[in-house]
């Protein structure tokens, strides 16, 4: 099973790029972020014709997340991150796909900081940490995939000097990431490529793509049940070089689900003697 995450930065504008990527790379599951479209504008028909069933939660002008499954219809589990019923941002979607629990997220950017947007980012992150603790201990294989808007370390950015005041690199942001991983999640790409500079985002300014001046902010985290299935991971950099491209490139993992041990059977009930 190949699972990918891709911040499309506007699904209406990037639909040709998205369809080309799906046709060429054929991920089994694709988590999308920043749809920037209301539910009614989601291209369900075009994606179905491309072979993908889909769940989505849209929002006008920003945010929005979706889960696509090749040849399958994702089974919805939840449409919001628990902990704040009044939060109407479309940032979280959770579904089951072929026995795997897939959580797709678009974590708040948090800029400018300090300020209310950064406070919201940290509060959202705390809610994620709380919810992830339950997912981690699930008997099901679980992946949390998406745009986390966090650069975990200085090794995950081309040059941190000009980004020191950005919300993505703040000590509080990185502390949240660290505490999330300390629960037991496996950062799939860094786990497989510990010494390689890998980026998933290149902004549109100052020739960042042309200079390979990137950041790694799109991540796939595997729980202990799923981590043994990891066989490959990477980034489809060619997508960022297309015309009218998103400023992100898809990140992905390949999983051999046959490596996952079957759960131990429940002990048989003993009949009480009379």
TrEMBL record:
The record marks 248 as: Interaction with DNA substrate. It is an enzyme of class 3 (hydrolase). One of its GO terms (biological process) is DNA repair. Coiled coil: none annotated. Signal peptide: none annotated. One of its GO terms (molecular function) is double-stranded DNA 3'-5' DNA exonuclease activity. Keywords: Hydrolase, Magnesium, Manganese, Metal-binding. InterPro entries: AP_endonuc_1, Endo/exonu/phosph_ase_sf, Endo/exonuclease/phosphatase, ExoIII-like. Residues 4-248 form the Endonuclease/exonuclease/phosphatase domain. Probably binds two magnesium or manganese ions per subunit. The active site is at 106, 147 (proton donor/acceptor), 248 (proton acceptor). Mg(2+) binds at residues 7, 34, 147, 149, 247-248. The record marks 149 as: Transition state stabilizer. Its EC number is 3.1.11.2. The record marks 218 as: Important for catalytic activity. Its cofactor is Mg(2+); Mn(2+). It holds the Pfam family Exo_endo_phos. PANTHER family: EXODEOXYRIBONUCLEASE III. Belongs to the DNA repair enzymes AP/ExoA family. This is Exodeoxyribonuclease III.
